[in-house]
Amino acid sequence: MKYDIVIIGSGPAGHKAAIAASKLGKRVAIIERNFRGIGGVCLHKGTIPSKTMREAILYLTGYRHRDVYSKWYRRKRRITMQDLRLKLADVAEHELEIIHDQLERNGVEIFIGEAKFVSPHEVAVDGETGRKILYGDHILVATGTKPSRPPHIPFDGKTIFDSDEIIDLK
């Protein structure tokens, strides 16, 4: 399958590039490792979950309403990780739908699977339906990031966490 641009990764850079190229009349394909990964680290482990968690805590504790009601005001007395996880899941699902709709509305073809270069202009996508070879005049690698874990810091998942571990707390 031939495209003007093939984009590996659907995080903020990948999906915005896909939409921009499509609006310029280009035929665009985007590859993501798995469907639940559309939106990338930003949506699932980074910016959106961390900001959502912060806002959920401020909301549930009633922090922003204390000026009006009193310093003792609480929207909820006991906040659990389950409360926060539910809010994170709601926000992530909503954002995932928005990104998917934007890509679809702009005619971007979405491929789910592992991407591997087979030549300077060809990428193999190994997914549940087998292997597909995509040809792109241009290929954008927008595969995101992962948390930095300096070796001198003893990450243990109990008292010292990286950003992914905080989001996955039970």
Short description:
With 170 residues, the chain is an alpha/beta fold. It has helices at 12-23, 40-44, 47-61, 66-69, 81-105, 163-167, and strands spanning 2-8, 28-32, 109-112, 114-119, 122-127, 130-141.
What does this structure look like?
There is one protein chain. With 170 residues, the protein is an alpha/beta fold. It has a single domain (2-167), classed as FAD/NAD(P)-binding domain, CATH 3.50.50. 39% of the residues lie in helices and 24% in strands. Strand 5 (122-127) and strand 6 form a beta hairpin. Helix 3 (47-61) crosses helix 5 (81-105). The radius of gyration is 20 Å and the shape is elongated.
- Structural class by sheet pairing and helices: alpha/beta
| Total discrete domains | 1
Biggest beta-sheet profile: 6 strands, mixed
Indicate the percent of residues in helices: 25-40%
Quaternary state reads single chain
- What is the tally of beta strands? 6
Low-pLDDT ranges: none
CATH structural class: Alpha Beta
- The CATH topology label is FAD/NAD(P)-binding domain
